[in-house]
Design brief:
Blueprint lengths: L12 E2 H7 L3 E2 L8 E2 L1 E2 L9 E5 L5 H6 L4 E5 L11 E5 L2 H12 L8 E2 L4 E2 L4 E2 L4 E2 L4 E2 L4 E2 L4 E2 L4 E2 L4 E2 L4 E2 L4 E2 L2 E3 L4 E2 L4 E2 L6 E4 L2 E4 L6 E3 L4 E2 L4 E2 L7 E3 L4 E2 L4 E2 L4 E2 L4 E2 L4 E2 L4 E2 L4 E2 L4 E2 L4 E2 L4 E2 L4 E2 L8 E3 L4 E2 H19 L1
Parallel strand pairs: 4-5, 5-6, 6-7, 8-11, 9-12, 10-13, 11-14, 12-15, 13-16, 14-17, 15-18, 16-19, 17-20, 18-21, 19-24, 20-25, 21-26, 24-27, 25-28, 26-29, 27-30, 28-31, 29-32, 30-33, 31-34, 32-35, 33-36, 34-37, 35-38, 37-39
Antiparallel strand pairs: 1-3, 2-7, 22-23, 39-40
Amino acid sequence: MADPRFFERRGPFSLEFLANAVGGELDPGNDGRGLVRDVAPLELAGPEDISFLEDKRRAAGFAETAAGACLIARSAAPPARPGLRLVRVDRPYLAYIRVANLFYPEPVLEPGVDRHAMVDLDARLGAGCRIEAGVVIGPRAELGERCHVGPHAVIGAGCVLGADCRIGAGVTISHAVIGARVRIWPGARIGQPGFGFVPGPRGLERVPQLGRVVIHDDVDIGANTTIDRGAAGDTLIGAGCIIDNLVQIAHNVTLGQGCIIVAQAGISGSTRLDDHVVLGGQAGLSDHLKLGKGARVAAQGGVMRDIEPGGEVGGSPAVPIRQWHRQTLALARLARRKGD
């Protein structure tokens, strides 16, 4: 179903091959030798496509789908039309992702430096790097093996990138040490000075921002996100964090491992998020806070106090999630009474 102008499809694959690739089992009587040519959602799939069912609310679409095969939970038993070949898996959506990656793998890099790129003579590029047109790489910068730097990205002096990093078009990176397999999508800004001013007799004076941004392995940073370098000490992004588009992370913030930060969230300076914290879209965090391991903030939550490990909050100012729901219901009841 993907547009061939933008995505190169592999295959076809036998259904048996796909089932084995995701640790699935074919329902008895299903022929695994038939070929599957593409992936597609239930409502768009055709007889040569494979789809998936994970949400019970889509059972009606499952009954009506024209798909030739479907990934389904091992214990699920919704009515299926005759001829639909079922593959039983533990997690259908995860299995679908892995099947989709078989049909549409990452493009293979062609190593080389475009003649319109500007790479300083003191920069070091690992084997297999691809540097696109308009890229600027400053002195003493180091890129690990097989990095891909998109058009017009700028990597400043002394920056270090580990192996297999993907840097999108127009990204700027300065004062940063970055691990392996990090993806930074177009337009992101890494390592710019943080927002720090002190009133003085001559007006507002900028606080020197003398730290770095340190990003550990397997981090994904969305388009147009900004991560400020530390003022004193570093801004730290833990391994495996997923940061959405248009997020602002201020100086000296620390993210633990596996945090998820959704679009338009903002984290003020020196706030610490322990491992696996989740911030919903447009959440805002005040400075010098600590959010314990596994804490969760609902969309548009305004956090002004520390959150204990596993705590869930919502609203602005943020309160425990159950209290927020009670407040919302109470306000709705009050509004109805006022309208009577």
